[in-house]
Design a protein that fits this description.
658 residues, alpha+beta, Immunoglobulin-like, TIM Barrel, Jelly Rolls, 3 domains, six-stranded antiparallel beta sheet, 11 helices, binds alpha-L-arabinofuranose
Length: 658
């Protein structure tokens, strides 16, 4: 809502002391002709971790859970189908598998008295859509007889959605394929494999993928989820975690080399979020690595994000075992980092560059940064970081290293890390913060006081918690989104120190989450974006190229320490627009005088994007659009004008100052 200075003063005179007053309005003054630091084009990014069924059961579009029968309980996710008349046997074996790296398979013996088999429940149900094609495949070996294998897709209520028959199985392992076209959309479908007729078959790597994936790559990623990421215009993608990089013990750490090549060869690993929280156990959570490092790099390229892989630094999670790789045995870990640079950037005449080309990407992935460790702390981390840094910088001086500052943004571990990493001339330090909205509001000026020289900041994980960290009561409310937005104005104003920032975690499955709040919530068919998502999007899509100094006057701070307004200003060099981001966290609209100093001419028509709602409002599967950014225009932009910022809002103003 906006009006000119003249109108404003007139109204103020008419209604002085009533609704509007020109006196005491906050004043935002932008030094529009004094461009400050250049903002990192990759400033606003995303952090992906396989938590909350983010990869398996999420981004990785495979619909069959435990497709290779490699879970510790080889039939987890599978149910035997054994009608009373059926006579047969179903067993898990490992003699003569189709792939030594995927040793377990199922033998189905049917006496032919009645169809007999097993069915897979998917990841809390398979989401299938009417009108779309689903590609089934399995490794099958015919051991005896000539039975038919019926491949059937059932809806959650037991309705048959589609079926195909496979027969004539070779005595050697072979991949058999078929396509299913469900006659209805169903969020809880399941896949049944039923043997009809007398005979014996062996079965492994049972897979069902939507034909429509991101870029329609066979065996690819869920298109709607990647689109949601692309729509954020992320500057970088930090992957693959998070705590899963560390593992609760070193043998459960993430090892990127094991995530390449044929999916059946990628060894299964229990996901640490399977058992981390007693209050949210997820016994069926494993990592198949179908989304592996090659796919991560490809995803970065697809969505225009710089890759930021995080590697284990010889330390298991310090909240768990804290197991350490001795310093004199660290070389294989360091070598993994060196090989990763070669995998991403090396010529096709190098060992790992050739591997990348073999996987289908001869061109380099242009890796510029690597994270050494996730959320490590203490002397043990510094000792290991120093060895990594020495080796990587020696061979690849142009690669920037992201180092860890522990799990808290201001405790003893954090201060120890900063002091020592500064002494080690670290490039970028990764800060993490999960705290209440109050913390974010109160810390919006945190970086105003940072030393300008030395390591830069990566706010690698942050999210306002409506209750408290790891509480299941945390919700993605408007209040949390505005707290983050207020904080982000501080990150932006200090873009000379803060190089990058990403919210955490990114995805959560509504039926299988461990951690809340999260940026994007999904089920087997749909997703919804939170107010926090839209805040991230409003910042990344309106980044600007340089910071403009901004001063605030007549800003009231509440007893609780919350300012009446939070503001940052930038300029887009190409469009020559001044971009103002303003958070009004209060329950009342706030009329503000805006002065743009040092610009000769301003186009009266400006663009606004506004996100607002009651502090407790949220989006949901039922109401995905309850809180949305609304675009509008205003007509009174000038070197000195008034704008009214709605209650509980983030507003982005783009003012043409050509
Ligand atoms: O984002 C969830 C977890 O929080 C991450 O895995 C970890 O780095 C942090 O403790």
């Amino acid at each position: 809502m906006s009006f000119s200075l003249k109108t404003h003063l007139l109204l103020a005179a008419l209604f002085a002391g009533a609704v509007i007053t020109a006196f005491g309005d906050p004043i935002i003054t932008v030094q529009a002709d004094q461009a400050g630091a250049v903002i990192n084009p990759a400033m606003w990014g995303i952090f992906f971790e396989d938590i909350n069924f983010g990869a398996d059961g999420g981004l990785y579009a495979e619909l069959v859970k435990n497709r290779g029968f490699e879970f510790p309980d080889p039939l987890m996710g599978w149910i035997k189908i054994c009608p009373s008349l059926a006579q047969g046997e179903l067993s898990v074996r490992d003699d003569g598998p189709f792939d030594q790296n995927n040793p377990h398979y199922v033998r189905m013996i049917s006496e032919g008295t009645a169809p007999f088999g097993l069915s897979n429940e998917g990841f809390r149900g398979m989401g299938v859509k009417r009108g779309e094609a689903y590609d089934f495949s399995a490794q099958i070996r015919g051991m005896d007889g000539s039975p038919i294998l019926r491949v059937q897709l059932y809806g959650g209520d037991g309705t048959l959605l589609d079926a195909v028959e496979l027969a004539g199985f070779s005595q050697n392992w072979n991949k058999y394929t078929a396509t299913l076209h469900p006659k209805d959309t169903d969020a809880r479908a399941r896949l049944a494999l039923v043997l009809d007729g007398k005979g014996v078959i062996d079965l492994d790597m049972v897979s069902l993928f939507p034909r429509h994936t991101w870029k329609n790559r066979p065996g690819g990623l869920r298109a709607d989820m990647v689109q949601a990421l692309a729509d954020l215009h992320p500057g970088f993608l930090r992957f693959p975690g998070g705590c899963i990089v560390e593992g609760s013990t070193l043998d459960r750490r993430y090892q990127w080399k094991k995530t390449l090549g044929p999916t059946a060869d990628r060894p299964l690993l229990i996901n640490r979020w399977n058992y981390e929280f007693q209050h949210r156990p997820t016994p069926d959570y494993f990592q198949t690595f179908g989304l592996g490092f090659f796919e991560y790099f490809q995803l970065c390229e697809d969505i225009g994000a710089q890759p930021l892989p995080i590697l284990n630094c010889g330390m298991a999670c310090q909240f768990n075992s804290g197991e350490l790789c001795p310093l004199d045995e660290l070389q294989p870990y360091v070598q993994d980092a060196l090989d990763l640079v070669e995998f991403a950037n090396g010529g096709t005449n190098t060992t790992w560059g050739a591997k990348r080309a073999e996987l289908g990407h001869a061109e380099p992935f242009n890796l510029k940064m690597i994270g050494v460790g996730n959320e490590q702390w203490g002397r043990q981390y510094l000792d290991r970081y120093a060895l990594f840094a020495a080796a990587i910088k020696r061979k690849y001086p142009g690669i920037e290293l992201v180092s860890a500052a522990g799990p808290s943004p201001d405790d003893v571990r954090f201060k120890f890390a900063w002091a020592n990493l500064r002494a080690l001339h670290a490039d970028v330090i990764d800060e993490h913060c999960y705290a209440g909205p109050d913390w974010f509001f109160a810390n919006a000026n945190r970086y105003d006081h940072y030393e300008r020289m030395g390591p830069k900041v990566f706010m690698g994980e942050y999210a306002a918690q409506s209750d408290k960290i790891v509480s299941t009561k945390n919700r993605n409310t408007v209040e949390t989104a505005l707290a983050e937005a207020a904080y982000m104005t501080g990150l932006e104003r200090n873009a000379d120190v803060v190089r990058m920032a990403s919210y955490a975690p990114l995805f959560a499955n509504t039926d299988a989450w461990q951690w809340t709040p999260d940026l994007i919530w999904v089920n087997s068919l749909q997703l919804y974006k939170t107010p926090n998502y839209y805040v991230q999007q409003m910042f990344s899509r309106n980044r600007g190229d340089v910071i403009l100094p901004v001063k605030l006057a007549d800003i009231v701070t509440s007893a609780a320490g919350m300012d009446a307004l939070y503001v940052s200003a930038t300029r887009d060099n190409q469009s020559e627009e001044i971009i103002l981001k303003v958070v009004n966290p209060a329950a009342n609209a706030l009329t503000t005088q805006i002065k743009l100093d040092g610009v000769p001419q301003i186009e009266p028509e400006g663009k606004a994007v506004t996100l607002t709602g009651a502090t407790v409002d949220m989006n949901s599967m039922e109401e995905p659009g309850k809180i949305l950014p609304i675009e509008s225009k205003f007509e009174n932009a000038a070197a000195d004008f008034f704008y009214t910022f709605p209650a509980n809002s983030l507003t982005v103003l783009r003012i043409d100052a050509r």
